Amino acid sequence: MGKGKTGEKKKSLATNSDSSLVWLRQCEEETVSPVTGKLSGHLPSWLNGKLTRNGPGKIQYGDTRFNHIFDGSSYLHQFNIKDGDVTYQSRFLQSDTYKKNSRANRIIVSEFGTASYPDPCKNIFQRFMSVFTPPGSMDPTDNCVVSVCYFGDELYALTETKNMRRVDPETLDAVGEKTNLDKYVAVNTATAHPHVDPDGTVYNMGNFFAGKKGPTYNIIKFPPPKEVNGKKLTSVEQAEIVVSIPCQWKMYPSYYHSFGITENYFIFVEQPFVFNLKKFFVNHYVGKPYFGAVEWYGDQKTKFRVVRRDTGEVLKTSYEADAFLTFHHTNAYEKDGQLVVDLACMDNGDTVYQLMLKNLENPDFECSHNTMPQNRRFVLPLNVQEAPKDTNLVTLKGTKCTAYKRDKGIEVNGEVISDQFFDLPRINYKHNGKEYTYCYGVEVSPRGVQFCKLVKMNVQTGETQLWHEEGKLVSEPIFVAAPDATEEDHGVILSSLLDKDNPKYVALLVLDPRTWQEMGRVEFEAKGAVTSTFHGQFAGDEETIHLL
Fold first, then answer.
1. Quick one: DSSP state of residue 68?
2. Percentage of the chain with pLDDT > 70?
3. In the structure, what pLDDT confidence band is assigned to residue 244 with cuts at 50, 70 and 90?
4. Residue 256: closest CA among 372, 160, 150, 344
5. What's the average model confidence in pLDDT over 135-140?
């Protein structure tokens, strides 16, 4: 297994035009005041709202640099669309982590792949004591760099620790202190990919390492805000755990980035990409990053853990597949007594190790093709107690997926929906948890892990359509449904564009999902370099509940 290293000494930032080096851009000047863009083409008259995106905007402080693509300081970008006019603004998330690193001019808060340097503001005794502080009593990073999500009417930036940061949707400034989830529920981590029900209820998952029976994977419910005795109770203040799924490997809880949801079930993928808790504690005391405690066990199985939403019952049926790694659930739905689960899958855990910045700064670096994600489908038959053994239980038409009842459970074999390299999947979220036809994502290029093409995929046929423009990089596509839509792909796709050669260029790209052609774009010149993003959310002006 690869091991993380402490932060590397300063190297000159990338200045050539190789697109793989966009991940190494560093923003030195924020675009705090909104700037107006130049429109070409047209925008639908009904498209009004804010697209907010999140990703790394700073990879080094002083002579210290982050090691991994997941570590950079959160930089928020927003396009505000109003009656055909669009503005752009961006700023660093004013987290405690960002402020501490900035004051010290070095990395003094550990991230996923980077261990902290000694804080020059502390004396020798304080540094000694901080090293020997138990990990469970330390407050992890609040560098919420992965995504954003509305919890009721409050916008939060999210990462994979127990900390979230509330953000003002008008100014992108941080609001109040960080939100520490373990003040409300028993979790040590949480995903950056919640689900939002049509009534505004938010669901998320988080690990809890200190349970009496060992680690658990906890599903958290955040009800819509409400008023009690004249006082507003926010979604976060009402957080509660509705399901605790026991970990099958007591000292090796699985890493996961997202989960699935249908009308009646939660679907959790427990994969053999795990945290070695023993190494985690040792690394803490010897000053190594958390990344060094993540391990891939390809000889183990990946398991689907299925939970009834109404009772919280974890189904006793064991669904096992050959080992694979996934970050992103595309969608899941129920049909004919079976669960259909679509995921962006990789054959092993090597991808995470290849996302070290020292790899991405090499213009000749190329990821192994067998680590590239593809959209893969699995079918899980329900109610199998009386089913015959050694017989394919999948009855859905048009699929090559299989599920065989064996002595120890159900052996499932998925099928690749399309050979297209594909990740950051999004759908028309009104079809979340329901049968659907289309998903949208980016083509992940092995060369530099760059996003050059947008992908529309028909999950029923495997047919794909691509959009790209020479010299430009795209971002995760977000579907916004038209208010009068009668078809699943009636609406717009929103993505941002970066220029390989001009670091201050940024554009809002609007595609017609039905034709996969450009409808319009709005181009801007930012104050400083515009950096790549991971995930975002669109919030319509007329919406009371903001779906994903």
1. B
2. 93
3. very high
4. 160
5. 62
Determine, yes or no, domain membership for 321: yes
Number of domains, the chain: 1
Give the Cα separation of 488 and 416 in Å (integer): 23
Residues 6+ apart with CB under 8 A from 124: none
Cα-Cα-Cα-Cα dihedral of 275, 277, 283, 284, to 10°? 110
- Please, are residues 371 and 347 in contact by the beta-carbon 8 Å criterion? yes
Contact 355, 68 (CB under 8 A): yes
Note the pLDDT of residue 100.
97
Whether 521 has a pLDDT exceeding 90, the answer reads yes
C-alpha distances in angstroms, 56 versus 116, 141, 298, 340?
A: 17, 14, 30, 34
| Burial (Cβ within 10 Å: 0-12, 13-18, ≥19) of residue 4 | buried
The CB density around residue 99, as the number of other CB atoms within 10 Å, is: 14
| 8 Å CB contact between 535 and 47 | no
> pLDDT confidence of 103, banded at 50, 70, 90?
very high
Q: Report if residue 546 sits inside a domain.
A: no
Query: What is the token pair recorded at 310?
Result: 């109404």
Dist CA 73 CA 86 (whole Å): 26
How are beta strands 226-228 and 478-481 bridged, if at all? Answer: unpaired
Q: Is the dihedral of CA 487, 490, 494, 495 positive or negative?
A: positive
The pairs formed by 464-470 with CB atoms below 8 angstroms and a separation of 24 or more are 464/418, 464/420, 465/516, 466/516, 467/511, 467/516, 467/517, 467/518, 469/497
pLDDT tens per residue across span 357-384: 999 888 788 888 888 999 999 999 999 9
In a domain, 2, yes or no: no
What are 264-299's pLDDT values in tens digits?
999 999 999 999 999 988 887 777 888 899 999 999
| Model pTM score | 0.93
CA atoms within 13 A on the CB side of 200: 17
Residue 300 has a CB neighbour count (10 Å cut-off) of 19
Burial 462-498, CB ≥16 within 10 A → b, else e: eebbebebeebbbbbbbbbbeeeeeebbebbbbbbbb
Distances (CA, A) of 485 to 113, 356, 430, 479, 488: 44, 43, 11, 12, 7
Asked if the structure places residue 159 within a domain, the reply is yes
C-alpha span between 335 and 282 (Å, rounded): 47
Tell me how far apart the alpha carbons of residues 134 and 183 are, in angstroms, rounded to a whole number. 18
Residue with tokens 């981590």, as numbered in its chain: 189
Range of the domain at 314: 8-540
Go through the chain and tell me how many residues it has: 548
